[in-house]
Design brief:
Blueprint: E1 9-10, H1 19-28, E2 40-44, H2 50-53, E3 57-63, E4 66-72, E5 77-78, E6 81-82
Antiparallel strand pairs: 1-6, 2-3, 3-4, 5-6
Length: 83
């Protein structure tokens, strides 16, 4: 894990009858396969939900014996991408 990484999340919504076609289209894009990895995510909140009110989240993510603490903020949504 890198302390200077930027996480970009893409969420797609599709009706059940087109999921196979969407999956087929996505596999047409150039890509590199990586084997599945097990991540541990632990989210924290105050008893009075202060982080939620500030539109923030505190997470500790574990992978391969290393752990990273991240404060997630509201970020930006541009064209369906959340950054």
């Amino acid at each position: 894990m890198s302390s200077s990484s930027v996480e970009i999340e893409l969420k797609l919504s599709a009706k059940p009858d087109v999921i196979a076609a969407v999956r087929q289209q996505l596999f047409q894009f150039p890509h590199h396969y990586t084997s599945p990895q097990h991540l541990t995510n632990i989210y924290f909140e105050t008893p009075d939900n202060q982080l939620r009110r500030w539109d923030m989240g505190l997470r500790i993510r574990g992978f391969d014996g290393q752990y990273e603490m991240t404060i997630k903020t509201a970020g930006k949504v541009i064209g369906g991408l959340h950054r």
